[in-house]
Amino acid sequence: MSLVLDPAAQDLLFREARTSNTFTDEPVSDEQVQAIYDLVKYGPTAFNQTPLRITLVRSAEARERLVKHMAEGNQPKTSTAPLVAILSADNEFHEELPALLPSFPQAKDLFFSERSAREGAAGLNAALQAAYFIIGVRAAGLAAGPMTGLDFAGVQKEFLDGDHTPLMVVNIGKPGADAWYPRSPRLAYDDVVTTV
Fold first, then answer.
1. What value does the mean pLDDT of the chain take?
2. Which of 10, 89, 96, 147 has its CA 20 to 30 A from that of 72?
3. How many other C-beta atoms lie within 10 A of the C-beta of residue 96?
């Protein structure tokens, strides 16, 4: 069976896409980020809750504040990437549900009145949206360098508030020299898929 997406697009989004460890100095514009968001915003989330929030780190001062919270091995690439995004889950996403789910506005109170329920739903669904975001960055011809090697509490305190939980930091830009580590193996189809 062949896939509908042509092989070049499959390579761009999946087979050849890699986490870049170096970047050129070519800037990433707000228009590019808007185009990425406009592409990936249609990805499904439960109850259309769309809890992902994106904080773009552009200024030198903000970059310096972020780098100090990154794991040592992630600091150089975060310092030099043209754009860095902090992806977080909005634990108060339910406030938007009446507008986002007009067919079932009572979902806000019926399912998400408790903070613990919101945190679990926000974390899962924002992580799903983060995966779409990474694919969107690739679709824009850029490299995405998602990282979870960071001080989450420090990033939250520095850039977010108590209602937003950081998920990851993503470096974004055109790959630079020696950008790729060797590709690690993947599990075979039969090791992952079970038919019952």
1. 96
2. 89
3. 15
